[in-house]
Amino acid sequence: MAEVKLNSVRKIYPNGAEAVTPSSFHIQDGEFVVLVGPSGCGKSTLLRMIAGLEEITEGELMIGDRVVNHTDPADRDIAMVFQNYALYPHMTVKKNIAYGLKNRKTPGDEIERKVAEAAQMLNLGDYLDRKPSQLSGGQRQRVAMGRAIVRDPALFLFDEPLSNLDAKLRNQMRIEIKALQRRLGVTSIYVTHDQVEAMTMADRIIVLNGGRIEQIGSPSEIYHNPTSTFVASFMGAPPMNLLDARIADGTVQLDGGAHVAAAPNGKTGPVTLGIRPEDVKLDAAGALHFDIDLIEELGAHRLLHGKVAGQPFTTHLLKDVTVEPGRHGVRIDPSKLCLFDTTGSRL
Amino acid sequence: MVDISVTRTARRPIRWTVLLDHAVLIAGSLFMLLPLLIVLQTTTMPDTDIIQHGPQLKIGDQFDENLQKAMVQASGFSGENTGLRMMLNSFILGLGFAFGKIVLGMMAAYALVYFRLRFATIAFWLIFTTLLLPLEVRILPSYKVVQNLGMLNTYHGLIVPLIASATATFFFRQFFRSVPEELVEAARIDGAGPVKFFVDILVPLSQTMIAAMFIIMFVYGWNQYLWPTMITTEESMYTLVRGIKQITQVLEGAAVPEFGRSNLLAIIAVVPPVAIVIFFQSWFVKGLTESDK
Amino acid sequence: MKRAGFANTWLPILLLIPQLSIVAIFFYWPALEAVQSSFFLQDPFGFGSTFVGFENYADLFGSAEYRKVAWFTVIFTLLVTFLSLAIALLLAVKADTILRGAKTYRTLLMWVYAVAPPVAGFIGVIMFNQTWGPLTNLAGLVGWDFVLGVKFNDTAFAMVLVSVWKQVPVNFIFFLSGLQSFPKSVREAALIDNRSASGRFWDITFPLLAPTGFFLLITNITYALFDTFGVVDTLVKGEPGNNPMTLVYKVYVDGFRGNDLGGSSAQSVILMVLVLVLALTVFQFRLVERRIHYT
Question: Three-class SS of residue A274?
């Protein structure tokens, strides 16, 4: 078990591209942290630097109480689960799981015991003598997990481990991985581009964009209090509604002139107004006009898509309410409103 | 009822084209096969019969005798270039060449793909320029070099200079690059160093590729002609393919040319590589076409 | 190179040394030697040599015989390349369409790959035997008095025929595997969009085969230039005389038979330059072509 500390860790590739700007954070012992962001945001590079597969250009990386910048991956006391599992195709499941232990000169009987234990934990008992090519996607995923578990590492690293699975299996494995991590209590860093995985699995989320950390926080902080329009639009499905607005006469006004809420002190000029779809209520007496174009039926609820003040807008509607396309009044809960300045930062 | 009539009308025009397709393929197969069959037929005939009638549509009874002559009789002065001896030399050349190429190629390709090397680009170009200039172009100076090194009429003089081309290296480099990146990363985290990774993971993974390369290189080595012709002047060093030259020359001068014997030697020179290519067809095709990418 | 390569310094050098030293001794040394001796005139009796500058080259370009050989090589290369590609493509397309016996045909059509060029030439010599060769007889039926090794055009014809016979299989293998690697969905989409089989071939199959075809074009040119040595040598029965020959064969004849080391080396250098130019063109084309097909 270990803490992980990054101190202004930076990555510049030989071609001069800065993949990760100097980034610092501190991961507690036993914590499950998710690095999330769009592709190319630097999340994988960051993870690979922690693994030792990518050199750290600047800054300091600590796992436990050691600085490991120049430590070989094999000596960092980590285990990693790869996106394509990276199972050794010519080895049986058993040999795949045992390979790391064998290289560490673990005694044979201990390897046997540990492999059996991991196989039992992951329901792989019947497959130990099969080759990876004879396994389903979910089983391969479990073997990759098994390979990580048997090592008793101080730190688990996951590089988009579920992205090759179909939706149903992904949901199931998500729960399994989280439960396993809870049980083993091993510090874990998990990279994904899927915000649902981030929200559901993380103790803490680190949102990355363009090689920069946008926000660090618990899932609910990130969801309800995004510090930038990027986080607001990246997290949540459907994402937060973002409308161009301005502050004048002490109120926030939309383009059509509708007054939405009282403005914070001392601000004027253009702003971006953010509101989560579920924080909007249909209300004939509401101040805003919502032109509904399309109703998406999702079973448990519906999504209404259309325009407010000429800008795209989406709201949630519970299943027992019916509504027709056309113009409707809506009401926004002012306490749920997020305001961003023109650069996208939270006011 | 409706179904039947539909399939009927739909099928009829296709049949003719299928027949045409087969006709083209059969013609192609005959074009490939007939010359060899004709030569094979002559090996069953007495030489006098061949000289009078040429190839005919019958199978004679001289095959055993011709085989006897081809395998153990020598045509040269020293009496050492029997079919058996030449066959042995051909195998040594084919196997030695294939083995050397693969071992050197894998080593060099491993160094180029899996290591952070400062001079990797230079090494790459030094090695890969050899793909551009075949031995035939620099045959005389190569001969002089081998002569200076005292390697004429030796097996290493025969084999090693032929290895100085990077086909296998190029091939293995392509293959190694197609091996998923994560495999070496997982192995490193699993505590495997470069030697362990090579032995435990990369070589087992390359098994099919090695086999395919081996077939291609064996055939290539076995079929070498110009180089053995120049390097081996002692008849005990002749390979079957190199022996062809002598055979044609003997045929030209003789009063009763030994067609049965020489034609059978030509067949024997063809059989081992052809058999290997046919038996290991799928590996061979895979290996050959993979080099395209 | 892999993203996470090993950082050892000495191991890769040790791994590269065998290959590099063989390449240095048996490739670069002879190649440089060729360049050097192309500027010297060798005494015919082996007593030393004199520096003559570009004289060897000037002699070559001024020689009607060399120009004749060069012309023959060009025509020979074009014929062999075109014919063996065309025949192989036809056979591959047919083998790809039929459902039954595809494997048998593949075997029947590819085995000649493993036949050595001089053996192919030898088989040619038998087929064209002056008194009873089946192909000589066949030519006789249409009034063609075929004489291998004596009549220039007859020998040239045999060279092209044997070289094509030897080269069709490898082209066939590549074309067939190219055809079989097309995604099934592309075929199905084409089947729906175009009812004419020949239309589908020219609009879909042919362009998709272009990368394979380009690769083969290059290998066939190199084959015709260099690998046909054995075919040429056996068909002329070691007696160049008035017979057609290729540039590579002339390097050998002049250097080894004629003992004209300087002239032969100059020819080697000319061929090297030719190949390098060809390679650079290929390299450039290949880049352009990549862009067209794969972006």
Answer: strand
